[in-house]
Specification:
Layout (H helix, E strand, L loop, with lengths): L2 E5 L3 H12 L3 E6 L5 H4 L8 E4 H6 L3 E4 L3 H9 L9 E4 L4 E3 L5 E4 L6 H8 L4 E4 L6 H4 L11 E4 L3 H13 L7 E5 L4 H6 L4 H8 L11
Parallel strand pairs: 1-2, 1-4, 2-3, 4-5, 5-8, 9-10
Antiparallel strand pairs: 6-7
Amino acid sequence: MTSIGILGTGRVGTHLAGKLSAAGHQVTLGGRSPVDTTARAAGLPPRIAFADQRAAARTADIVINATPGDSSLDRLTGLRADLVGKILVDVSNATRDDDDGLPGDLCYPGSSLAEKLQAALPDTRVVKTLNTMLFMVMTAPETLATPPTAYLSGDDEPAKRTVTGLLGDLGWRSEWIEDLGGITTARATEATILVVPHILHRHGLQPFAVSLAR
């Protein structure tokens, strides 16, 4: 059993919390207040703990960033001391929204949120993954008709192996996981978020992932 703190109580955070808790991990969901009523209303099991984001980060072995990507860097930089020595799994994309509320541009062109986080948190091991799909695929990849891909980016190999194990707990088969290399490779997967609005406009909110076909 691993202690996991999830920062963010939206659809991504709550879906991950439910599946990882069901897999036997000790999960704390971190909201902006110690008891986030939105998360409690999501029907999560009582074994999931609730805390503010600082407490969720401080008490966990692994921290998952599921906060809005355009504010993640400032938010997590403020938790630098609480993240020392931790694995930080970044599943967010930093974008600026168009008028329709969907991603229209990257906040960090020529770089990535994951790279910015790693530079700001040198004593934390950042691993990027699960950012190339709709939220429901993160915890149920087997529901897609075509095998999906979960990409990994990170400079620390043991951290990536640990995150690969967590992906397995979420239902990801080993052959569906593609290790791209160092943290700089996250700029490639983060850029794929720009295809999402076009797919949603054509097909609606149907589960999909940007995957590698062989």
